Amino acid sequence: QPFLGIESSCDETAAALLDGNGRILAEAVFSQTESHARFGGVVPEIAARAHLGRLPPLVRGVLREAGVEPRDLAGVAATAGPGLIGGLVVGATFAKGLALGAGIPFLGINHLEAHALTARLPGLFPEPPAFPYLLLLLSGGHCQCVAVHGLGRYERLGTTLDDAVGEAFDKSAKLMGLPWPGGPHLERLAAEGDARAVSLPRPMLGREGCDFSFSGLKTAVAQAVSRGHRHADIAAAFQASVAAVLADRARRAHSMLPGATALVVAGGVAANRAVRAALEAATPLRLLAPPVRLCTDNAVMVAWAGLERFRAGQRDAVALAPRPRWPMAELQPPAG
Ligand code: ATP
Ligand code: MG
Ligand code: FE
Question: What is the Å distance from ligand 2's center to 13 Cα?
């Protein structure tokens, strides 16, 4: 029986339909990037309104594409946090309404858990990672290293002390006059530069544990820009610094979880080729990088996390309130 997932925690409105085995039947994402670009970041009010307008047609679209009626669904899962409260309320309320109207179960899913479980999606990799595995979550809003011990069993090994890594890409790109979001632009610019032409710090390199820090690197980029270095060289040096730091943190993480079966990456920064190459070389672990559309915010991952929990017996009350802050470590295995 098909299972529906809904994502609306940040600036992507998304819906996806899986079959009972977790195979993708239909998926759709509406990215609001254009609406926010001229403000240089996500504007919560604009995001909430866009979710409200876009979500109903997106859900209708994936249902129609798969020829599925709401009453045919095994259940519906929506992101219930962490994220921007307006979008969370829109997505969760829509899912609850659908659940009540069609007489099907509702599940509220943690967005970070959804990123963490994506690599287990059937058919994605020849062999899905077995527990425990390491997750590096590298997005615009999150920068964490997590030990994934099991469904609902997450241990945060490290997090950023200041900026998220995607945020560092975006802020540094902005200093070089690149459009928002700057990550992909910075990667393109870096390809034309010489990383050795500019010396930038590599924060936390060699430090105990698995924490990150990127604000000093961003400040150094600002100084390099004002000193008149070629932007392409700065971009290349910045990217090399980030890649080296992430590789170092991945090695630390592996030493903290020696029994890990794989290193899984998620978040938009996982699209960066220099980052991927550095992580590939950092540890002897198998690096599992889902396709970019499943690394950035999407509803397939929400549907899949929902389906894993649904199969384990979880059902949530429609009274469940979305949580703008919801650390992964607070999650529990499904009680079923
Ligand atoms: P959240 O943190 O809530 O998951 P988000 O929208 O900030 O949401 P994503 O959509 O996963 O995160 O990723 C967007 C981030 O990834 C942006 O900071 C963007 O610049 C960065 N990014 C995307 N492509 C690349 C790339 N090729 N190189 C570096 N950074 C990239
Ligand atoms: Mg996004
Ligand atoms: Fe995300």
Answer: 9
